[in-house]
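hey m, so remember when u said the tokens were messed up on ur end? i reran from scratch. heres the input so u can diff it against urs
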Amino acid sequence: MSLDKKRKASIVFVLVGALIIGGVAMDKKEASAAEQVQMNMEKIDQSIQREIREHTDLSFSSNPYDYIQDSEYYDNVIELGVAALPELENMLKTSENNGLNEYIVAIAIEEISHADVNSILENPDGCGWENAKEFSGEWAAIKAEANIRVKKIIQSNALGDKEKVALISDYGVLAVPTIEQYISNKKIGRSGNGLKDELTQVMNSYGLSTEEVSMVSDYIEAK
């Protein structure tokens, strides 16, 4: 084989290799959030079943939080951010079970959304939901009413700015679309600047991109 042919063959080989590697990376990147949630939740279930089979100390724990501590698969779900919420809620809603896996899904929803369901429900003992199915019903109602409730809090004459911010913060990212509307309202005078500034800080603390804010809006409006 001539030198030129060897060079051409080498270039083709490199290009093909790059395309294959790039294709794999792209497939992984383009895998939908729903698929990634499903895959990682399956991995969590497999790890739990392994703990049970091997009779480890963890398998005797009744605390769901013990099973997600240092779990790379749970962390993968959380890292997906708000894009994971629709599939997590769907998994909870459609599951025929009401056990440990479902409880972990509920925990993930609260962590990703930064919402405090117990505070929203005003439960003094901090026990608003005892199982995942109970959480599922409460979450659906909270999500459906989030825009209206947050707007009422903002417009309340009986609450001070600090109280408003505290109550709105309980809704986590569910409050972001309404906060954005309030902040962008040019009709609000200087008297509302303090609340605007504080709510802006709350919204920014979630670190959502413009695309993610749009995702939250779509998620809240979805039936």
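this time it looks ok to me. The longest helix spans residues 3-30. if urs says something different then somethings off w ur setup not the seq
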